[in-house]
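Notebook B, p. 112. Complex prediction, attempt 2.
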Amino acid sequence: MGTVVVGTSGRWVGRPLKRVEDPRLLTGTGTFVDDLPFQNVHHAGILRSPHAHARILGIDASAALKALGVVGVITGADAEALTRPFSVGVSAPIKYYCLAVDKARFVGEPVALVVARNRYLAEDALDLIRVQYEPLPAVVDPERALEPDAPVLHEAVGSNLACHRRLVYGDPERAFKEAEVVIRERFRFPKFGSTPIETYGVVARHDPVSGVLTVWSNFMGPFIMHPLVARALGLPENRLRFIIPPDIGGSFGIKTSIFPYIALICLAAMKTGVPVKWIEDRREHLLASSSGTDRVTYRELAARKDGTILGMRYRWYDNVGGYVRSPEPGCTFRPIGNWVGPYRFQDLDVEASVVMTNKSLTGPNRGYACGHLYFETERMMDLLAERLGLDPAEVRRRNFIPPHEFPYRTPTGGLYDSGDYPAAFEKALTLARYDELRREQARARAEGRLFGIGLAVAVDPSVSNMGYDTVALDPQFRSKPEYLPKSGATESATVKVDPLGKVIAILGTAPQGQGHQTIVAQIVADELGISPDDVTVVDEMDTFTRIWGISSGTYSSRFGSVGSSAVALAARKLKARLIAYAAHLMDLPAETFVFRDGQVSPASGKGPSYSIKDLAGRAHWHTESLPEGMEPGLQATAVFGFPQANAPDLQDRVNSSNTYGFIAEVMAVEVDPDTAAIRILRYVTVHDAGTIINPMIAEGQIYGGALHGLGGALYEELMYDEEGQLLTGTFMDYLVPTASEAPTIEIAHVVSPSPFTTLGAKGLGESSSMTVPAVVANAVSDALAPLGVRINELPVTPTRLWALMENARGAKR
Amino acid sequence: MAGPRTIHLTVNGAPREGWVEPRKLLVDFIREDLGLTGTHVGCEHGICGACTVLVNGEAARSCLMLAVQAAGAEVLTVEGLARDGTLHPLQEAFWEHHGLQCGFCTPGMLLTACDFLKDNPSPTEAEIREALSAVLCRCTGYQGIIKAVQAAAPKLRDAR
Amino acid sequence: MKPAPFEYHVPTTVEEALAHLRHYGGEAKVLAGGQSLMPLLNFRLSRPAALVDINRIGALSYIEEENGTLRLGALTRQRAIERSDVVRSRLPLLTEATALVGHLPIRTRGTIGGSLAHADPSAEYPAVLTALEGQVVARGAGGERILRPEEFFRTYLTTTLGPDEILTEVRLPIPPPGSGWAFEEFSRRHGDFALVGIAVLLLVEGTRCAKARLVAAGAGPVPARLRGAEEILERDGLTEQSFEAAAARAAELVEPDSDIHASAAFRRHLTRVFTLRALRKAARRIHGGH
């Protein structure tokens, strides 16, 4: 299972260093948002709609206001009067407030809020609020929602279609005309989240004197959400302060969607005049936090008989729930640059419909939209192999982008930085002993056993270019002079040396378990030739004191790529200053010095060296010794931004991410013919994430990503009935895989350093979450090939699989 | 008898006193009244296991107990695992084997494993998985946690 | 997810507890291990006026063997049952089933009486009580009632226990040595309630199956005693053919429901599969085999 890797490395980068974060977390002395102490803090309870779709005719909160310990009640009328609707990423006129204003559009939508002395009393008071609803017919299926007689959620929009784009690249019509084989299939991808064990938490305090609203929350931004909340509240940005505590209990993208609650709790704090705290409970989380979209897809693939893909058509119906909440409809467009995956076909026709229904709202969930994409594509590859009688491995081999074509421009505008897809793929096959597995399968089948082997490959994008989301707007809209184009992805870091020579690195990120303190200490230690112990890393966010940008935060696997680059650049800038200073002290040219082992020394090896400590002392205590023109103080800040992050062009091409890794996986399963239980026998995953900074942490990310994918493939689904009632509102029904369900995972790496990042590293955080749904579906389909069962819908639960098997057996009888 | 009442208990070896409403959950009492925020709230219905503590030496969900029920009991929370600045062998092993990422489930994992290894000092991997299935982790895929418990088991055996 | 307010009483004797229950006339709930009740309180799905916490009635926690019967105090923790040597040697079926109840920290608090009184038809203990033809003792103002499983379980989450009664003891007859037994179940994840669970007890005389007991959990509103299937085994003996016939009959006898985790048809099918598996396992264990 071991990692054998390491790309560019120094003394510390590339080593599996134990984490700096762990001692505090192991001893219960971490600081999560719910742990922060506040004076006079009051607690919010949120009343939520029991109806999937209902007009709100009136709210009577008089009894609640009189209840013990209650200091205020907020309703939709307050939200309408005191806030603006959030900006949405589509042109449809959708009004989305932090509380339901005229209608409730999904079960669990916030309708009113109580502020009380403690949470117990707040929940008591919620029982006393009377809401008069006029229930309306609900719709939950995205295709049904587009039928002319479907109930319409937003009357101003006129239909449930939030956004519709037809995007054509190359000449797909010709590809399908010339095809020797055409495969068509329909797929369904489920709605599931990542249910971080720490739920959302927000504390807001309003200072009436300065007018500053300070928010503590476990939001890993600030991202675009700080400006979104500032605009909704009508506050200048310099009166809205976001502080993120040192520890966040997981996010996996889900906590991006906390911002409407930030606005809501801010509103409550302003209106009641007390600091207000809200910790989401698990019931609230499952009802109304966030999830990935459920999607219905119609796929078509055109190919030659030799397996060469000529073109594809994707028709998507993405279900975003009751409103479009930013950064949706990223569910559709986030992977636009890698829509073709690792394959070299040029002709693609995409028709995307973003649909609103009476389900809870969606947003980024680990692998944002990539789990959907590769589930469909990789199933199609297997169907093509089946049609042509080829080995699924061979079909993939015949379509890979060859290694000599990197950097590779995809037809949709992506710029794949580096990679060797065939090498990584073959490595996975070798590690899994693919040929031996196939022989084992033949033996098993001869015994009547249901043994299957699945393959899946994926281009793993990291660091979203802020421009991708604007593909939701058509090019005419984007061409208007008043339209402000969007592009970019930046991260900043500061490295400073204090007067006694110790180093502090300050980040603009807010990790949720990724170990940034450890990794940054490794990078800085290498750059400055010191020990990681000599580096203290500050990774808490405070929008008033940190340098941050519109994309800042820990999401879309950003840190390994942009975060690490900013840190290394800042350290290099500082190093250059230290060299210049030492050279000045010795009155020699800077070019004749090198930085080695924490010292600036003459390259010749002759003459004295200056340690960092020595230089720090002199620079801080004796500024006269600095060279003319060098500003005092020993710190350097670097902001790393990608030059390749363009806005979409008029042909809707955009480099949607900034680095692109690669994943190749092999899974062997056996299905119990009696119970339809799926047992994972082997699971091999090979990753190319460029330079690996800390292999232990990298493996941890892969393990976690794989299990998220497995959850969606086999266990987790937010299920609704036809009336829009959630059927999986507890952890008894929403099934998170446990240690007993987790497979053993064999990991290996291939290293193609990115030419676009400082250390050659790419992101790795989403990793196998995007391939496991595909590899499971392929493996189970392969196991059941003797019955003719195809897995085109997830999760593959025993009851569903058994029904498929029974139907197939019935058809054979 | 719905009004608050006084309770006495021992927490991490020290006598503690509380004045609590009967409906107050033990986990809320530990966090809010005793200020021991190492114990985490994850689901409040006994599934995720983040709030697991030892009550009289046995692992229990503190979201499924009332604080008043702990009167007279000995409670051990994650803050009481390390002794005199020395990490417990399980804590050491979790650190060594990357048994945590965000750290939110970790206290529940540690205390569940602690109790489990007392009953079963030489467990198989399957038994470890079974025991740990009492606590949900969303970061690690459980791989590092399983390795950590495997590594800690012989050390705890030797320490007896 | 915080409980609504309630009155709270901590009696130290059964009599005291009964007095509290009488006082509230059905508006109070007995709090035993709390592993099912506390979630309901936290969700505010249950809002009793009062809780009568019986955890301090020390006299309700014991495991005693007497005249071929194992008597367990209702407050005996599942963990204590799991660890008990006398249970392991006399009623290994109970030990096997206990290991399948929830998870370790749930069993620390959960009690045998609480599980039976909660009467979840998917749970293990109601099926074991039924398979062993055990009895529960209910104590109320009018004295004790001794109830057989068919007199005790009424429907989903409902028993014939009166609002002012407390389940005080569980009596489980010890099968004769040499019997075969098994508890097999199918759940989505480890520790979940079973989609279907099967308890089997085979009492043998020589090579003959004198009595067979087959009970399905999760396949109807109460634990389903599968008499029709038992008769096949008693008539035709313990052969692979009779196991298959009994399993097929079992699947016909159950009345499962559909829910999000399994369709009724799938549960019926699982009843057959797990009856067969449990029968084979139980047969292997006859006369101490494994």
